[in-house]
Design brief:
The structure holds 2 protein chains of 2 kinds.
Chain A lengths: L6 E3 L18 E4 L5 E4 L1 H4 L15 H12 L2 E4 L25 E4 L7 E5 L4 H13 L5 E5 L1 H5 L21 E3 L6 H16 L5 H7 L1 H11 L11
Parallel strand pairs in A: 4-5, 6-7, 7-8
Antiparallel strand pairs in A: 1-2, 2-3
Chain B lengths: L1 H10 L2 E8 L2 E6 L1 H13 L5 E10 L4 E10 L4 E10 L15 H11 L31 H8 L11 H9 L6
Parallel strand pairs in B: 2-5
Antiparallel strand pairs in B: 1-2, 3-4, 4-5
Classes of the chains: A alpha/beta, B alpha+beta.
């Protein structure tokens, strides 16, 4: 039996802002079980529209140092491969390379992880998904750029659809150079990242919050069909 | 394979036949015949497998060349059907009624070359280039390097050396150009 719809979709106005709006994000007039009707605007109602705020470090130095040590020893990688480099991440979890001994493990969703490995070239279509995933990750969060594609575009430096520099769109903590880097290089990258976090330099999330407008402007420059909320978590 | 080509020649006007191997031929047909030839090959000559549909931009001639690549997996035969279409307002008959996945190739050609396939399912939806607002990027008049430099914040410091020039400078530093 088909379920009866309790809402009516309101066709959006034909403006520049609504050009790329997806049908599931159209405003709709919903009738509640008690007969009351109200308008739901998914883009504005289902997502928080507050800007991210920078998180001040603990004022007691030794506590902050302890926290940084704890953060560096619990790195949870988001299992999301963007390019050819994702194939180098799988062997990390095998007995040969065994990333578990460094306290590195993978999680399936952005809300459970704090390290985002951008593994290789990033097309504009993927960048959009990568930004959404990055913003959903809880702070403190770190980004590792894997391969030369994330540094200067690599072999796709003149491509019409892949970005050249990752650090224009999200704050990057560590770059691992190579095309492609071996899993050993990735392990070295993890050690470098840990060193940075212990020194208190892993402040990517704060940097993103402070320069939020600049990052957003850069992201919107390349993602021309921006049809999602500005900040979604 | 030869008798298949002869069969086609009796039914359609074929401008060119290229033999690549004993079991691989390419034939060139008129635009209006192309989908008919493909249909004939599928239904009568048992070329049941559609491998790909691709385009080449012949900007000097003002034409696109489309290639339908079909194969007969039982007898291990391959055939390519080539056709030229006009570059201005490029349109081609859709072949999605023969194989469903042809629609995906046609959608990609619409996006990358701007070749329209009226009636093909979802042909106007973006495939890889979401929100693309320039000319289709695989057309040869599109300058991909210029577009990339204007759009994607190139990292400064990249230099390239022509190997011949570099060695000339290194081996014969006093010689003028």
């Amino acid at each position: 039996m088909a379920e009866e719809k309790n809402y009516k979709i309101i066709q959006p106005e034909d403006t520049e802002e609504n050009k790329f709006l997806k049908p599931e994000n159209y405003k709709r007039e919903v009738t509640a079980p008690d007969g009351e009707t109200f308008v739901v605007d998914p883009i504005n109602d289902y997502f928080c529209d507050a800007k991210p705020q920078p998180h001040a470090p603990n004022t007691i130095k030794i506590v902050e140092k302890f926290l940084n040590w704890a953060r560096s020893e619990s790195i949870w990688v988001l299992g999301y491969g963007t390019g050819c480099g994702s194939i180098e991440i799988y062997p990390l979890m095998t007995p040969r390379f065994d990333a578990y001994r460094f306290g590195v493990q993978q999680r399936p969703t952005p809300r459970q992880s704090n390290l985002f490995i951008i593994s290789g070239y990033l097309s504009v279509k993927t960048l959009k998904r990568a930004i959404r995933s990055y913003e959903q990750m809880p702070s403190p969060k770190y980004v590792m750029g894997l391969g030369s594609c994330t540094i200067n575009g690599g072999m796709y430096w003149d491509s019409y659809n892949t970005i050249n520099r990752l650090d224009q769109y999200m704050p990057v903590d560590v770059y691992v150079a190579g095309c492609m880097p071996r899993p050993e290089a990735l392990l070295a990258g993890f050690m470098e990242l840990k060193k940075r976090i212990k020194e208190g330099k892993g402040e990517g999330a704060n940097e993103y919050a402070e320069k939020f407008d600049w990052y957003k402007a850069n992201q919107k420059k390349v993602i021309k069909d921006w049809n999602m909320p500005d900040y979604n978590w | 394979m030869k008798d298949i080509i002869e069969n086609i020649q009796t039914k359609f006007s074929i401008s060119e036949v290229t033999k690549q191997r004993d079991n691989q031929y390419f034939i060139s047909v008129e635009k209006k015949d192309a989908v008919q030839v493909v249909t004939y090959l599928k239904d009568i000559e048992k070329f049941s497998n559609f491998i790909l549909l691709t385009a080449v931009d012949w900007i000097e001639k003002g034409q696109f060349q489309l290639t339908y690549l079909l194969s007969d997996p039982i007898n291990k035969l391959d055939i390519g059907v080539r056709t030229f279409i006009e570059r201005e307002n490029a349109t081609m008959d859709s072949a999605h009624h023969l194989w469903e996945h042809t629609a995906t190739f046609q959608r990609e050609l619409k996006e990358m070359f701007g070749i329209d396939f009226p009636g093909s399912p979802r042909v106007d939806e973006p495939f890889l280039l979401e929100g693309w607002d320039n000319i289709p990027p695989m057309r040869r008049e599109f300058d991909t390097k210029k577009y990339s430099e204007e759009t994607y914040f190139p990292r400064p410091g990249r230099t390239t050396n022509d190997p011949a020039e570099h060695m000339k400078k290194k081996l014969y530093p006093n010689e003028k150009k």
